[in-house]
Specification:
The chain is mainly alpha-helical and 46 residues long. It has one domain (2-40). The chain is 76% helix and 0% strand. It has two helices and no strands.
């Protein structure tokens, strides 16, 4: 689970660099952050 969230974060970073901010935000809020919250990993919350 965590490795998928890390990968999703990297994809969101790339999308941000490309100017696709809405999709990057969607990935962070709908796919990445819920995994970290589920795992109780507050260090990865940005």
């Amino acid at each position: 689970m965590r490795s998928k969230a890390v990968t999703q974060g990297k994809i969101a970073d790339i999308l941000t660099q490309r100017g696709q901010l809405e999709e990057a935000l969607r990935i962070r809020t709908e796919e990445e952050l819920p995994v970290y919250e589920h795992l109780g990993d507050v260090r990865e919350r940005r």
